[in-house]
Amino acid sequence: MSWDYDEYTKPCPCGKGLIKVVNGSNDWGQTSHNETILCPECKEKDELEKADKEERRRVANQKIDMVLDYFKENYMDRLLDKFVNTKSKKTIWKTAYEIGLETYSESSFYKHTKSKTIVIEDYINKNINWRNLKKIATNLQVKDSKFEVLYKDVASHIKEFEDEEKRLAYLRAKGRI
Ligand SMILES: [Zn+2]
User: Fold this and answer.
1) Which residue of 50, 68, 125, 146 sits 20 to 30 Å from the alpha carbon of 175, by its own alpha carbon?
2) Where are the domains of the chain?
3) What distance in Å separates the CA atoms of residue 145 and residue 152, rounded to the nearest whole number?
4) pTM, 2 dp
């Protein structure tokens, strides 16, 4: 499998320098795209923006941990209650799937828990995350203004990253990256 590269330059945003672009493609229809900022001013600006973005991501992750900790502290009992009568892996999976805690299909769930004893509290702790939190809270009929505040705060901080993921997923699906 060999790659072919096409290299060219384009003006940088400030107009005083250049950006080197390298586009690659191979026999399998895969492509690559790489840009190097050759202008010192734009390069510095780009590095600062990246550092800012990393900082925003760090803050967003911290806030996610906060809302998850709060939720577990206050609603673990209610979650455990849901599993009171789950004696088999089948009923554990069914309950977890209905609450929104599990995304695996029944057969994948068996595969992943094969020859393992499931400790419900550990299982909940491991599976609860930012993506399924809202669904779980809705299913538990959580009405809690503090939780709402924490949740909305995370949502506003994580939005740019979720939008970016969606954009990348779209481009990937279209085969543009
Ligand atoms: Zn520039």
Assistant:
1) 50
2) 1-38, 52-173
3) 10
4) 0.80
